[in-house]
Amino acid sequence: MSQEDIDTIVDWVSAGSPLGNPEELPPPRQYPEKGEWRLGAELGPPDHVIMSSPWHVPANGQDLWWEPRVPTGIAENRCIKAIETLPSKEAHGSTHHANSMFVVQNDRGDWMPVGMLSEFAFGKLGEKIP
How far, in Å, CA of 87 to CA of 119, rounded? Predict the structure, then answer.
């Protein structure tokens, strides 16, 4: 930053960080409704949804990792256009992020990760596949 920019910020903080002219504020950000697909407006509703079982977060305690294995219900090859991981409306307040991965069974029957599928984080739209 230039010294002039630094001085401007220091002066603003020293003045008590005044709000400024409310008429010059940008409009408030519009977030999708809880439980609404964020890519839905562009791509329409998903043609396949994979749901995990419910999981209840205790009111107190450490951050917990939940790692369910969920069958996809897909039996044929599919071309993926986009992927979105979305918590349920009920889980919206307790989910800060979620990672989804593909896992397959090897010849010995062991489950092996084969790649990242998508990630949920507040503000993230999902994954569009080129």
Answer: 11
With a CB cutoff of 8 Å and minimum separation 6, the contacts of 81 are 43, 128, 129
Q: How far apart are CA 69 and CA 110, in angstroms?
A: 13
Other C-beta atoms closer than 10 Å to the C-beta of 115 total 8
How confident is the model over 77-114, as pLDDT tens digits? 888 899 988 888 888 777 888 888 888 889 999 988 88
Supply the pTM of this predicted model: 0.65
Is the Cβ–Cβ distance between 127 and 84 less than 8 Å?
yes
d(CA 22, CA 68) in angstroms, rounded, equals 47
Residue 121 and residue 119: Cα distance in Å, rounded?
A: 6
Residue 52 to residue 98: CA distance in whole angstroms: 12
Residues ≥6 apart with Cβ < 8 Å to 125: 38, 39, 84
Distance CA(5)–CA(30), nearest Å, equals: 30
